[in-house]
Amino acid sequence: MPEERVLVLGAGTGGLVAANLLAYHGYKVTIVEKSDFHLFQPGMLWIAFKGHRPERYLRPVEDLVRPGVELVKGVVEKVDFAERKVTLGDGRSLSYDKIIVALGASLDYDAVPGHRQLFESIGDYFGGADAAAKFWSHFSKLTEGTLVVAAADPLYKCPPAPHKAAFLAADTLRRKGLLGKVKVVLALPFIHEYASETMAKIIGPKLREAGIEVKTMFTVDSIDVENKVINSLEGESIEYTLATVIPVHGGPRIEVNPPNAVDEDGYIKVNKYTLQVEGYDDAYAIGDCTNAPTSKTGVTAHLGAEVVVDRIMGFEARFTGRTNCPVVADGEAAFVISDYEHPPVPVRFSKMKRLMEDLFIAAYWSSLKYPEKWQAVFRAYFEATSPAVLGERGW
Ligand SMILES: Cc1cc2nc3c(=O)[nH]c(=O)nc-3n(C[C@H](O)[C@H](O)[C@H](O)COP(=O)(O)OP(=O)(O)OC[C@H]3O[C@@H](n4cnc5c(N)ncnc54)[C@H](O)[C@@H]3O)c2cc1C
Asked: On the chain, which terminus has fewer CB atoms closer than 10 Å, C or N?
C-alpha cells in the first residue's frame, strides 16, 4: 500500500475523479469541499432553459466519495506550497505529502457594472442550481420581446455554453409557438459565430437554421438594468426584455504562498503537460483553477485528474490539453475537439453525437465515483477521436 498522504482540494469534477482513483489504487486520500452538494454544471442549462428540476443535477458530496477517502467539510482559505500546509476558514490546518488543487474557477459579478443587479434579480445559468431555477421562472413567462444571451469576457467555462443556451432557449420557444414573437440574440465576444473559425463555419448555419440572431464582436461592458440595455466594449448597445450574461471568471479566491504561484487572474501556474505547480514537484493543479492553455471544461478536468494520478503512481503521463466540448442543438450535437497541438477540427452535427452526449451525461455520476470502470471506454473514445486521428477531414 502506498504510504503517501494525498490532499485533494475541491470535490468538483476533477477533484472527485482524482481522489476516487487514488483511493482505488490504495492511497490515503483526504478531500476538502465547502459545499454539501456537487452540481453537474452543464445541468444549469437544462434547468434555466428547459425547466428541468435542479435535484436531477445535484448529489450530496458524501455519496460521490468512495470508501477510503476522508471527506473534510470546510472552506480552503490558504494554500502554502512552501510549507506543505493548507489552512481552512475555521482555523484547522492540514498537511500533505502530495497535493492536488482542484478548486475550479471563481465568478465575478462585480466586474461589469449592473451585472450583480441583473444576476440577483433574475438569476442565470452559471451561478448555481438556484440561480438557474430562478432564471427559468422568468424565461418560462416570456411571451414577447428579445432574449439576449451574452458574455462579459471571452474566457469562460465550456466555450460553447452560450451557444447551447441560445439553442435550448430557441427550442423551448419554438415548442411553445413563441419563436419570432420572442427574438433570441446571441451576442459573442468573437469575430465569428464561435471562437474557432473552423467550428464557426459549422455552428453558424445551425444558429441561423434555429432562428437565432448572432451579434459578433460584442463583449459586455455594462448593463443598464433600469432601461434594459446592454452596452459592449466595442461601442454597441442591445435592448432586451430578458438577458443573461456570463460573468468574468478568475482563479479560486484563496491566499497562495508563494504569491507568484498564481497568475494575475488568480489561476494556478502549472506545467501544461505534467500539471505540476511551477516550482513544486509535490503539488499539482487540475481543471478550471489552472492557467493551462486549454478550455475550462469537465472533460479536461477529468483527463487532467487521470494524468496526475498516473504521475503520482510513477508513470510518465502527459496532459495533451484535449477538449471535447459538446454543442447541443435541436436533437443533434457536435463536439469541439482540440488539443495543445491542434486547433479545433471540423466536427459536424449529427443525431449519433447527440446520443453519445446523452450517454456521457448518464455516465457522469458513476464516472466520478468509479473512474477506473470508465477508463477503458473513455480511452478508446478519446484515442479514436483525437485531433491527430480526425485531421482536417474531421468527423
Ligand atoms: C453552463 C455550463 C455548462 C457546461 N457544460 C459543460 C459540458 O457540456 N461539458 C464539459 O466538459 N464541461 C462543461 N462545463 C464546465 C465544467 O462544469 C467545468 O469545467 C468543470 O466542472 C471543472 O471541474 P473542476 O474540478 O476544475 O472545478 P469544479 O467542478 O468547479 O469544482 C470545484 C470545487 O471546488 C469547491 N471549492 C471552490 N472553492 C473552495 C474553497 N475555497 N474551499 C473548499 N471548496 C472549494 C467547489 O465548491 C467545487 O465543488 C460547463 C459549465 C457551465 C457553467
From this structure: N
